[in-house]
Design a protein that fits this description.
Helix content is 39%, strand content 26%. The protein is of the alpha+beta class. The strands form two sheets. The protein has a seven-stranded mixed sheet, sandwiched between helices. The protein has a four-stranded antiparallel sheet with strand order 2-3-1-4. Helix 5 packs across helix 6 (168-187). The mean pLDDT is 92.
Length: 273
């Protein structure tokens, strides 16, 4: 058995109809030896994603075909650990009080990277022990901000943190809070910590065969391209956040792994709030 995630284009379909289709899958899954674990539905974009434990992709599609006829346009094999890290769950959530089972998570995620500027030089200058302490200080600041913004740490990168957010607004606001917290930290410490941050957002199967593949890559590249104490965001983030006056210095940048120049926006966090 393997774990698969599929993508459905369901423009014009309601959340209640998608919830009913999920129930129909579950009703007949035993006939095919599969287990539908959960799903995500973005009514605004008309996209749905199913997570299923199945012998193969074709068997999972057969269940959809017999149960309700909503055939997936794309199916990829995924790791449960990656799904849980990015999307926060691998089973149907329990509805909150007053929430219907049809009110589902959209699956769309914003990805944020932090990176300590000059970490290699910092280690050379201060030594391993002191450098580790500064990395721990960075981690504490970032994790505190993530906790306040409903962000989820996906992994530690050695000199930074990668995180996922269900809300693009929360991701940008968290990035600004992180930079403000480091500014406050640096005002009272002889060894300052300067970080750069990059953000992008997208769907779980964007650009095929990898959970948030190009979204993760672009967020990481934007982080690497950002200057010290800066936040660099993608065009997707710029459009979804909705506050154009917060972003300036839009430039097209050549980033490693991307064949065409990428439009990036710098967030004026120091002048906001």
């Amino acid at each position: 058995m393997a774990i698969f995630m599929d993508r459905h284009d369901l423009a014009g379909t309601s959340a209640a109809e998608v919830a009913e289709a999920h129930c129909k899958d579950i009703e007949i899954e035993d006939q095919y030896g599969v287990k539908f674990l959960t799903y995500w539905f973005d009514e605004r974009r008309g996209t749905a994603f199913c997570l299923v434990d199945a012998p193969d992709m074709e068997t999972a599609q057969c269940v959809h075909r017999q149960a309700h006829g909503f055939i997936a346009g794309e199916v990829v094999e995924v790791a449960l650990s990656a799904v849980e890290a990015f999307l926060g769950r691998i089973h149907d959530p329990e509805p909150m009080p007053g929430q219907s089972s049809a009110e589902m998570d959209a699956g769309h995620r914003a990805i944020l990277f932090t990176d300590i500027v000059g970490s290699t030089a910092m280690t050379s200058r201060l030594g391993d022990r002191m450098a580790i302490e500064l990395v721990r200080a960075h981690d504490a600041v970032v994790r505190r901000c993530l906790g306040k913004s409903c962000g989820r740490e996906v992994k530690h990168t050695g000199d930074g943190i990668m995180a996922a957010f269900a809300s693009t607004t929360a991701a940008v606001d968290c990035a600004m809070t992180i930079q403000r917290e480091f500014k406050r930290y640096n005002d009272g410490n002889p060894e300052p910590i300067h970080v750069r941050i990059g953000l992008d957002c997208g769907e779980p199967l964007e650009d095929s065969n990898d959970l948030f593949g190009s979204t993760v890559q672009l967020a990481a590249r934007l982080c690497a391209a950002a200057s010290s104490d800066a936040i660099l965001v993608s065009e997707n983030i710029f459009r979804e956040y909705g506050a154009s006056d917060l972003f300036a210095q839009a430039t097209r940048r050549r980033l490693k792994g991307f064949s065409k120049p990428v439009l990036a926006f710098q967030c004026d966090w120091a002048d906001c709030g």
